[in-house]
## 1
Amino acid sequence: MGGFGVIEVVEPGPYATVQDLGRPGYAHLGVPRSGAADSRSAALANRLVGNPESAAVIELTFGGAVLRFARGVWVAITGAFCPVEVEGRTEGMSGPVWVPANAELRIGMPSCGLRTYVGVRGGITVEPVLGSRSTDSLSGLGPRPLQRGTVLPVGSTGAMLSVDLAPVAPFARQPVVGVIRGPRDDWFTPDALRDLCAEPYEVTSESNRVGLRLSGRPLIRSRQGELPSEGMVSGAIQVPPNGQPIVFLADHPPTGGYPVIGVVRSSDLPAVAQCRPGTRIRFRLTGAQEWPPTKPMSA
Amino acid sequence: MTGAMRRVGEDALLVETGSLAESHRLDAVLRGRRLAAVEEIVPGPESVLVVASGGSFGEIWAQIEEAVSERGTQGQAGAPGAAEVVVEVEYDGVDLEVVAELTGLRVDEVIARHCGSPFVVGWLGFAPGFAYLVGLDPALEVPRLEVPRTSVPAGSVAIAGGYSAIYPAASPGGWRLLGRTRMRVWDEHAEPPSLLQPGTRVRMVPA
């Protein structure tokens, strides 16, 4: 895939980055996975324009972007629902949209949700770092966040456009999120898991691509002392000493030292990544499929 | 080996190893098996996290159980046959005098004890390529700065608590700076990008 300067960022909105599926395989070297926070919406944007799901897209935070295209190209807008205009004409979300050469694509503020994805036929072809074009907001790996005047190259693909419109369920105003207990639920009082699921938690404004900082009923530890640092996953609900949980998202640190009381079910993680500050989310305990439960080793 | 296998959501499990040496052994065994669905193997001081995707979890679980039960020699931390990296250090760090004061040693003794410490990369974290080097001479244990510096230059050689480290890139940092090295420990265009891997043995020598 070649790539020429095709997209000029006229206005990036509050925070916009290039994202793909991230850089797995380097966590043991201190490298976060990164990648699209709502990977489901990013994958849909790619499919709608005939790209493989691994192509890089633009991730907008709170919308508000204006992009100018040097050549005509198919795009698809997914994720948080925003008004979309091409040359003053209103266009829909979740379907391919033709942007003529030298036209502007304007994306307004989302009415619901937080992160909007712009898939471009051929994909954004900035230089990959460790196999990924994602901006990692924690470590600084990958391209810089988009600024006014940033120019992005676009590749090419021969695949057909085969879908006019994808049916997408609207985001829930108060999402219910499945949680699998552990691995460190035994560091908390027996009531802590029930407390986690008893009342909704509010997403605070200190949330970002690293994690959602929540505010609500504090989760009380039964064990004091420090946990030796251990590997972390996306969706881990880490509880610092103040008892207010943090849900890790794509740019989470690969290791951490606070106990993880539970992990968000992977199919619910995209919805969590779409929670804007002020959203109230409710946790619900759920079992994991297929895995045997935690068990002691015989050794 | 005290451990349990703990489920971490749907796609991962945490094996409690009880020791860094066992973490390194298990990390090396699992890495050597190249299990197709395994995306990450992350050793920690007393655990190894294994992240899988799209595979048969039951099968991966069985493979890990087998690797755990294989008995290795319970010795020092460090993967069997791991490489040794010799790091040339210019001992001119801004905290050298303070460390001497805190430890009650002379500056040349601080340097000698740092060079005499048999370091092993325990694990990486904090930043890409930031290796926690275990094996620091206990006489050199000092607390980190109360207020971290906003920027520590790349290549800074530092200590804090029971660890030493080499800053892979310029970053904020609260460790005590003993000196610096020209050795590049992190290169995002290299494969692997980090010179220091869990289990790598490291020796410091004055430049």
Note: Chain A touches chain B through 45 residues (CB under 8 Å).
## 2
Amino acid sequence: MSEHPISNIRNFSIVAHIDHGKSTLADRLIQATGGLSEREMVDQVLDSMEIERERGITIKAQTVRLEYKAKDGQTYVLNLMDTPGHVDFAYEVSRSLAACEGSLLVVDASQGVEAQTLANVYHALDANHEIVPVLNKIDLPAAEPDRIKAQIEEVIGLDASDAVPISAKTGLGIDLVLEAIVQKLPPPKGDETAPLKALLVDSWYDAYLGVVVLVRIIDGTLKKGADITMMGTGARYEVDRIGVFRPKMTDVEKLGPGEVGYITAQIKQVADTRVGDTITETRRQTPAALPGFKPAQPVVFCGLFPVDAADFEDLRAAMGKLRLNDASFSYEMESSAALGFGFRCGFLGLLHLEIIQERLEREFNLDLIATAPSVVYRIHMKTGEEIELHNPADMPDVMKIEEIHEPWIRATILTPDEYLGGILKLCQDRRGAQIDLNYVGKRAMVVYDLPLNEVVFDFYDRLKSISKGYASFDYTITDYRAGDLVKMSILVNAEPVDALSMLVHRTRAEMRGRAMCEKLKELIPQHLFQIPIQAAIGGKIIARETISALRKDVTAKCYGGDVSRKRKLLDKQKEGKKRMRQFGRVEIPQEAFIAALKMDS
Amino acid sequence: MTPMSAQLPFDAGFGVYIHWPFCASKCPYCDFNSHVRHAPVDEARYVAAFRREIAHQAELAPGRTVSTIFLGGGTPSLMRPGTVGAILDAVAANWAVAPDVEVTLEANPTSVEAARLRGYRAAGVNRVSLGVQAMNDRDLVALGRLHSAEEAMAAVKVAASVFDRYSFDLIYARPDQTPGAWAAELKEAIGHAAEHLSLYQLTIEPGTMFERLRDAGKLVVPDADAARALYETTREVCEAHGLPAYEISNHARPGAECRHNLVYWRYGEYAGVGPGAHARLATATGRLALSTELVPENWLAKVEAEGHGVTEVERLSPESQGDEFLLMGLRLVEGVDQARYEALAGRTLDPRRIDDLARERLVERTPDGKLRVTREGFPVLDAIVADLAA
């Protein structure tokens, strides 16, 4: 796009907490610069996936190119990069941010800075962004711009004196935002004559175009027909389409330094493209790839099983399709005595897990059972070997284990101070180590180091309930540490139930075991005999409940006219029994597993 | 297919069931096919229809010798004795009737109905079963019965004077009933009983008034433990008084069992005539399950138009026959013959399941190869059957 010199390009992202108005602001910017007519505007254009819209979150990075005639009379190209806003996608966020020179920090003028805002603003600062604070919802009666400005300065350490007051909802102050982008954010730098060096920001699968790759050109020029190489994977492609989002896909001839756009190149699946990879010309390669590239690393694992065993092949097909578009999720076949055939799946985090599960259920109409999420443990064997454990069922013989290491996170929690006591207790109960605690006005900010294993087990729900929904939470994975971890098995009538075994910290085993036994006692129907339910570590029972034998189940009257009805009832019972999972002599309805695995609600 | 001979070691006999679907009022616990009509019922028209349906079933199962007849309902004692006589004549016109045939009629113990008992005897009835249900007026009102306790005992006295064989029903496990109170009531009842008592635990059936009351929290029935205790009381008291249980809810002096009901429980052959009646007939094409139109007027119209009221004919698969055999046979204290199960179902009962149940003392094997449910097993019979049939 040679009509605009590189000095007239601005690449920026928006950093905000959920609900603070990021998407609404993006919509207003598109509207104000004439990217879409009023009629074409669907609310929150950028969050195009159904789940993204519903949850108000962004999963895939997206971009839109705006042309803005500034007050200085010049026309600027503004590339808005919408980044995923959740910690599960921290790596994707960092790559999106690496494609920009600046960020708008959007803060709700009544609610102030949240944990997520904080985490994302630090990511932006890490990416050397110039940051323009924006105070949104300034029109609401509860807005306290001065207090929030002070908070931004105090908590983040940013000068907020020039913060732009706006109302994305009403459109108030949008022109000021556009001017601030032009005036305060730096233009990109790049050498048009150097060998091509482009950042692979994101990619997705399009039913008509195949894999579409979002790129940011650092140096050189990318043209249609170019022979390109992905430096991380070594794969070669010929570029067959280049374009920009306005926000509709619009083909262009070439992209120069500082520009953001898409390419297609006969790439079969998203897994062939790696976010953060460097794209260069095959015949004139850039000497140094961009820093910071790393392959997606699943952090949380769980088993996904079809409720109806007959849906297994459908589930396999659905997973294949989803993976076309999301290379960060992995799956391999798994079989369980309790749940039949399914898949052990790896995810970037809990939200990612939820999203994938929800998409499988919604877009592919599947009923799924998810086993309790588990983190990746590193098992140090006495032989010196190190094993990554994704599934408690695969735990090696304890006698051969030297040490088990588990992932730890650093969590930042912001909360109104009246809930602080409960939150500290929660973190303490979850084996947390306090790193920092300070106050920002009436809000407390606590930083804790926590084992991820304690966080995947209902931590977020507990946090929400303790703080009545007011606390915000964010985390980054920091390191692996040795822990006194044990495998807890659940035995029903002395038979272990594989789907319910888990790795827990020794100090937490009894409480978790008791909770599981109590739950199962409610869920497993009475049998003709008494059924012990036990939680055990190795041979040692740590919790026990007993389901008493059935006391009465008999039809008082049964004569010639009742046989047919009774037989049909028996038929139904027999059908029901077929759907039950047999553990020794105990028949456990599948619903019991589903409910038992939903312990966290 | 299993050869017919294997299906028919029929010392179980051949029974004929006649359903009279009308009642003077609907009891709040009842889910039977019973109907209240305010206009008088045209009994002659019904007799004609019964005659045609009996002939139709005799065509399907010809040449049998009728060992038992049961007139049930509804309330058959609302029929005039002449109507009963005409129906019995129709049975005799279509099949041979055994000289010792048992002919039972269900009756309500009101004074009006008691007055007809002699007439029924003259018509050929030789056994009555009276729906007494409770021995005190407070519970009779709660159960929606139209008679008083005194009236009921008077009717029992009449029945005793008219018939050699009679039985009456009681319903127990009523709200707030204690084992002590029930034992006393039961002993009083046994004082009036000759040879047979049917003692039913109150069951809240779907679609009944009692179900609505219970769901609204206005009716609280004993929980599983209390109901089981009442069941034990029933067994003990009856046994002590020479009326041991021979089936879950039926007690008799040995030899005085209801032979008609034994046909059902021993999975014998029976015709079923009248609205909503069921039959099991062993025909050349296999064992058939027949059922007829439920609504009396529709049944009548159907019989008049087509010669029968049958709406459903199902040829029972070996699996279904095996299931029905267990459902019915295990209700009997005498148990079931495993060889006959194998002949009907075409498979054997899983010996491991039997072992497991026997270990829990819920079933036992008898020396002659029968399998029977123990006293501990009866309160959970339905679960045992479900286990064995799975």
Note: Chain B touches chain A through 51 residues (CB under 8 Å).
